[in-house]
Design a protein that fits this description.
The protein is mostly helical and 744 residues long. Among the domains are: 12-190, P-loop containing nucleotide triphosphate hydrolases (Rossmann fold, 3-Layer(aba) Sandwich); 195-262, no CATH class; 681-735, Winged helix-like DNA-binding domain superfamily/Winged helix DNA-binding domain (Arc Repressor Mutant, subunit A, Orthogonal Bundle), CATH 1.10.10.10. The chain has 38 helices and seven strands. The strands form two sheets. A five-stranded parallel β-sheet has the order 2-3-4-1-5, sandwiched between helices.
Length: 744
């Protein structure tokens, strides 16, 4: 199915700082402090809305002589591939990065730590130091993104600096950076305006205050920049003394001030324009015209940005704008309360615009906000292919979580996609929930994902899930084979599914014929993941026949495809590793065999009862290699994992007896000192988090287990590595390719 993955579409405005305004108060004192914080790797600016965090950062970047990479975070960046694609675009704008590693960021299944380390290899190692600014970082809530971002920051070249700004401190390594002296912090008290700055703002807005008046303005507003700005507008309008009109920070009268001082002097059609577009996080004339079904939005936006500091021009080449958070929240609340029906229409039009402009993630969100889950499901279904196979499976899952069970039952082909996504991530619980929806659903239309029918898509998924035994796998495979024509993008998957069903029933002759056709169809369609998987399964059949020459040729081709398409961390690649390890061992190349086993070991946690037959077959083949190498611990680990799956899914056909037979061989093997090959799947899952320097509790939260369980697994890892510290364990794991998903 993997044809040509596409990189995420980049919104240019996100990687440019907002443009300055003539009435801005220059925060000279703070800029000087930030500039002097040369030894701080990270600068954190945290304060509620209205304190000028973005303005301060923008002013500082304009005063800097070194390159500045800017990224404004939004909710859609809670996908590690999307986040780092934007980071790459932001850095590349000022310090060209190596495009090779950047292209690999979208590799399917690449772990977060691997993405962070991979992007580090793309950064320029010579030239000027770079300041990286991350604004609105409080919107990052996904653990994978936060962990990967923290690891990336820690690995930045000497001299690089990162400034993060948000409403609260993000869940990054703040405590660790603070204790090591790598953090400089700017908070609410630092951002308050003093008397001189209040006076400066007043003068920039054409108001001249006495020293006493400006002092009172600063005291009454508590230096809250947004309150000072609104107060100055009120003073100018009413020509009254400051003491009678100044709002204090957080005072409930803020809405009245916005209504009277910001909106009061505007024409009704401009106020209507603001209200109807306030739900948009970023605005561009084309988007506003589409939402309002009119034209002339560009002139309105430019006039508003010129006259009002609560409407901000963003950088970039497309003419993007945004409303200040305080103004936006006020407008949005009032408008949605008074115009609920129209609000849905506006969201729907925005969703259509985003879809037409290559931004399906934003389109789905807007269509769901409009209550139009039919169109939202179709958009996600048609975009899922590109999202999933460009490494953004997390986006598919997070968008899918926005649909309730009833909506998924009406669009069960979407539940099928969500089940595939969870399957490839080893998320057993999510697979079970989606599979139950798929099994109980009916749909007579044509799915937007290119499959012939919902029944065909369900049948192919069912083969991989293997929930009901080999006979049901055979029946499901026959449905898919009959439904998917030769030109279908799903034809190669249908053929591979049928071959898996044949292998589960010990019908190797039929499986061989189906796999040969699958290889040809996948190659013609540039479906590299299907071609790789079919070649590996075919190689195992050749090994079973003793045809090592053909098996070698097929594994060579599969590995070439794997490297060319960046599939090293892809779920089904483990079957390629298993076949390759058997071939390498047959030719007596112990070093190559060990290296391949290490690569397979990284992916072993993905082999679960969610993909029962496939997972057991992979583990069985790996177990055979460990047994042949007299590695009792390695064999015991993979066979124990296989046995655990068999206990949950006992109806898997002859493969179950093969697992039991191999376990019998282990009883006669001498015991050996524990080593890395003996790591269990649970220990491998914990090992993947050790480089992030998380506490036991934090790792437990991410894995959904008890803290004591994480501690037990960590101690076991130390014992098998023969080390006593986390740093030594990380060093050993890195040296043998068990960390980052990239072989050493």
């Amino acid at each position: 199915m993997l044809a040509h993955p596409t990189a995420p579409a980049i919104i240019d405005a996100k990687i440019h700082p907002p443009r300055g305004r003539s009435e801005e108060v220059t925060r000279s004192r703070l800029i000087r402090d930030l500039t002097d914080a040369r030894d701080a790797r990270v600068i954190s600016i945290a304060a509620p809305p209205g304190y000028g965090k973005t303005t301060l950062l923008a002013q500082w970047t304009r005063a800097k002589t070194r390159p500045v990479a800017w990224l404004t975070i939004d909710a859609a960046d809670n996908d590690v591939v999307s986040l780092f694609s934007y980071l790459a675009a932001a850095v590349d704008r000022v310090a060209p990065v190596d495009p090779g590693p950047v292209r690999k960021l979208a590799s399917p299944g690449l772990p977060p730590y691997a993405i962070a380390r991979l992007f580090l290899t793309a950064l320029p190692r010579s030239g000027e130091d770079v300041l990286v600014v991350l604004d609105d970082v409080h919107l990052l809530t996904d653990y994978s993104c936060l962990d990967a971002l923290g690891a990336w920051i820690d690995g930045l070249p000497e001299g690089w600096q990162v400034a993060i700004a948000g409403r609260v401190q993000p869940n990054l390594r703040i405590g660790r950076w603070r204790s090591s002296g790598a953090l400089d912090e700017v908070g609410t008290e630092d951002l308050t305006l003093d008397r001189q700055e209040c006076d400066s703002m007043a003068r920039s807005l054409g108001l001249h205050l006495s020293e006493e008046e400006s002092r009172h303005l600063a005291m009454r507003s508590e230096g809250w920049p947004a309150g000072v700005y609104l107060a100055i507008l009120a003073i100018k309008r009413s020509r009254t003394e400051p003491r009678s009109v100044v709002p204090a920070s957080g005072e409930p009268y803020l809405a009245d001030y916005i209504r009277s001082e910001v909106l009061g002097g505007l024409d009704p059609d401009v106020i209507s324009f603001l209200g109807r577009t306030a739900f948009l996080e970023r605005l561009t004339p084309s988007l506003c015209d589409a939402v309002l079904e009119t034209d002339g939005s560009g002139e309105k936006l430019e006039a508003l940005a010129t006259a009002n500091s609560l409407v901000v021009r963003l950088g970039g080449s497309r003419g993007w704008y945004r409303y200040h958070t305080l103004l936006r929240e006020h407008l949005q609340s009032d408008f949605e309360r008074d115009n609920p029906a129209l609000t849905h229409d506006l969201h729907r039009r925005a969703g259509i615009w985003y879809a037409e402009h290559g931004l399906p993630e934003q389109g789905v969100v807007e269509l769901l906000a409009a209550g139009d889950d039919d169109h939202a499901a179709k958009l996600l279904g048609s975009a899922a292919w590109d999202l999933f196979y460009s490494g953004r499976a997390g986006t598919v899952r997070s968008l899918g979580d926005r649909f309730d069970e009833a909506a998924l039952a009406r669009h069960p082909w979407l539940a099928t996609w969500l089940c595939w996504s969870a399957l490839f991530a080893g998320q057993i619980g999510r697979v079970a929930r989606m599979a139950d929806i798929v099994d109980g659903a009916a749909f007579s239309g044509v799915p937007p994902d290119g499959s012939a029918s919902f029944e065909s898509g369900r049948a192919m998924l069912s083969v991989y899930l293997a929930r009901h035994g080999p006979d049901r796998m055979r029946a499901d495979a026959d449905v898919a084979i009959s439904a998917e024509p030769s030109w279908s993008p799903w034809r190669s998957l249908a053929l591979t599914s049928s071959a898996i069903a044949s292998m589960a029933l010990d019908d190797d002759a039929r499986a061989e014929a189906e796999l040969r056709e699958a290889v040809d169809v996948a190659h013609a369609a540039s479906a590299s993941d299907e071609e790789q998987g079919a070649l590996a399964l075919l190689a195992l059949l050749m090994i079973g026949k003793g045809d090592w020459g053909r098996a070698t040729s097929m594994t060579d081709r599969a590995n070439k495809i794997m490297r060319a398409s960046n599939l090293e961390s892809y779920f089904t690649t483990v079957i390629t590793h298993a076949a390759s390890a058997r071939v390498a061992l047959h030719r007596g190349d112990i070093a190559a065999t060990s290296a391949i086993l290490g690569q397979a070991q990284v992916l072993r946690p993905l082999l679960t009862s969610a993909s029962a037959w496939f997972s057991v077959r992979c583990l069985l083949e790996l177990g055979r290699v460990y047994v042949a190498m007299s590695d009792r611990d390695g064999a015991r680990a993979v066979l124990a994992q296989a046995e655990d799956i068999v206990r949950k899914r006992p109806l898997l056909g002859p493969v179950v007896a093969e697992v039991r037979g191999l376990q019998e061989q282990l009883r006669d093997m001498p015991a050996a000192f524990g080593g890395s090959s003996g790591l269990t799947a649970s220990e491998l899952r914990v090992l993947a988090f050790l480089p992030f320097h998380l506490s036991y509790r934090e790792i437990a939260d991410r894995l959904g287990v008890k803290e004591s369980t994480v501690k037990t697994h960590t101690i076991a890892i130390y014992g098998k590595f023969g080390v006593s510290t986390r740093g030594d364990a990380i060093e050993v794991a890195s040296s043998i390719g068990l960390i980052a998903g990239i072989p050493a």
